[in-house]
Amino acid sequence: MTESERVLWEGLRKLNCGYHFRRQHPIGDYIADFICLKRKLVIEVDGGYHNEPQQQQNDLWRTEFMESKGYTVLRFKNEEISNNLSEVIMRIKVQLFNE
User: Fold this and answer.
1) DSSP 48
2) Mean pLDDT along residues 37-61
């Protein structure tokens, strides 16, 4: 795991909200960084290379594939996790308890 993934994983483990997350979970040919199977929520952590045009296209295809399987995908940049973990966690909670 990258440093941002480690930080987010610790945050997810401390949520204590009744939902369980897994790391590195396969969905088709892809591996989700984090997933809550019960809520069909995928969380992706994007490093700097995700700013490259080809990687952005690949990420779009990846997201579209996961959404076609019924998953909701949240993407966070490393900087968001490093600079404002509480905001990232709040956005995840909102998604978990939406509906």
Assistant:
1) G
2) 85
